[in-house]
Amino acid sequence: MRIQSESTIHHPRDVAFAAYRDRLPEIAAYIPDIREIIVRAREDDGSVVALHNEWFADTEIPKMVKAVVRPEMLRWDDYASWDSAGFVCSWRLRVGAFTESVSCSGTNTFVAVGPNETRVMLSGDLTLDLSSVRGVPRFMARKLGPQIERFIVAMITPNLEQVNQSLQAFLDAQTVGA
Question: The pTM is what?
């Protein structure tokens, strides 16, 4: 399933890119459905920064999938490679639910559309294969798979859009405080 998002940040591209990369745990306070983001690892290599962030969601689980998705599963690992030379971030998510059955990856591209305006374009893919989930009968895997995939995409996509809005709010607050 395709994941896409596009937002405009009213700050210079280098500022938006660096804040998104380096200050995400602080930006988390501006994201309504995120409890926290923890930086687990960071490696700098010239213009490329490799990050491993762990995200913790704070969202309601639909009744339809409560039997399979538990609250502790609403976390994910974000492995990202931030290339400041091209203003692009390649990422891969490892979700807390059905870890071996879910594949999610993509890119964020930061494009300057003016001296104080940046377009953040996210493009990614999510695939779910419940046939490998222990304890889920095949007939249920076929029925539940699309519902859970929609739930995961529904949780991730608005969050990604909200992250950009939260980045805007964070940068606005930094500007006011400066």
Answer: 0.84
pLDDT tens digits, 148-166: 778 777 777 776 788 899 9
Distance CA 84, CA 45 (A): 11
Cα dihedral 51→94→29→149 (10° resolution):
150
What angle in degrees, to the nearest 10, is found between the helix axes of 138-177 and 13-22? 120
Residue 48 CA to residue 71 CA, distance in Å, equals: 34
Q: How far is residue 27 from each of residues 17, 112, 124, 167, measured CA to CA in Å?
A: 13, 21, 22, 6
**Ordered domains of the chain (ranges, CATH):** 2-177 (3.30.530.20)
Between 19 and 4, whose confidence is greater? 19
